[in-house]
Amino acid sequence: SGCSAGKPPLGTLSQAELAVQQADKSTASVYAPLELQTARDQLSEAKRAMAAEEYEEARRFADHALVNAQLAEAKAGAGKARAAAEELSKSIQTLRGELERVSTTR
What is the pTM of this model? Predict the structure, then answer.
C-alpha cells in the first residue's frame, strides 16, 4: 500500500496538471489520443493518492502523467508538421502540373 512518508508533491502535481491542460488545448486529442487519455488517467490517480495522503504514489502518478502529456504534445507537433508537409507537397504538385500545362500550350 502507499506510504505517506515525505511531503506532498505539490510542485510535481502542478506541473503534471499544467502539462495535461496544455496537451488538451493542443491537437493531441487528434494525433495522440491514447497518450493524452493515459496522462489524464494518471493525473486523476495522482489526485486520488494526494487526497489519501499517499504522497509517494501521488508523486509517481504525477511524474507519469507529466511524461505522457509531454509525449502527447510532441506527437501532436509531429503530426501537425507531417500534415503541413503533405499539404505543401500537394501544392507543389499542383504548381508543377500548372507549369507543365502552360509550357505545352505555348
Answer: 0.78
